[in-house]
Write a structure and sequence with these properties.
three-stranded parallel β-sheet; single chain
């Protein structure tokens, strides 16, 4: 396992994703999951949770999902005694990782669909429309 802490330019980051065979994201929970979006956008096969923020864009159609269980867990470094987290199932995670090389042509098809999803759905224009919709609803409320 190599942990890369460099600050990369966008073209260097894309090159890094293209140098990999798979992106693994066994997170305990995400507000969004930007690195998963980046990997998906480059067409890299992904193994990830499909919970919390990732639920908005990641599923079995575009990658390999990891089963999770919601458990309480303390986060002492943040002085939190009880936090509910999506704990990835280790055995399922390993099995999902093994699927990628065993069925690589299918993994690449999923990755292509993932890239198309990110590029088509998560544009600046679509994000602006969604924000306007949320603000309109918050300010005006539902109309009958």
């Amino acid at each position: 396992v190599y942990v890369d802490t460099r600050k990369l330019k966008q073209d260097e980051l894309v090159e890094l994703y293209h140098s990999a065979h798979c992106f693994l994201f066994p997170s305990l929970g995400e507000g969004w999951g930007l690195t998963l979006c980046e990997a998906m956008a480059t067409g890299l096969p992904c193994v990830s949770i499909a919970e919390t923020g990732c639920r908005d864009f990641f599923d079995e159609d575009v990658g390999y999902t990891i089963k999770t269980q919601i458990k309480e867990h303390p986060l002492e470094e943040y002085k939190l005694k009880k936090c509910r987290m999506h704990i990835p199932d280790t055995e399922n995670f390993i099995n999902q990782m093994l699927k990628v090389p065993m069925e690589y042509p299918e993994a690449l098809k999923k990755a292509k669909r993932a890239s198309e999803r990110i590029h088509n759905k998560f544009t600046w224009e679509n994000s602006a429309k969604r924000l306007v919709s949320i603000l309109y609803f918050a300010l005006i409320g539902p109309r009958l």
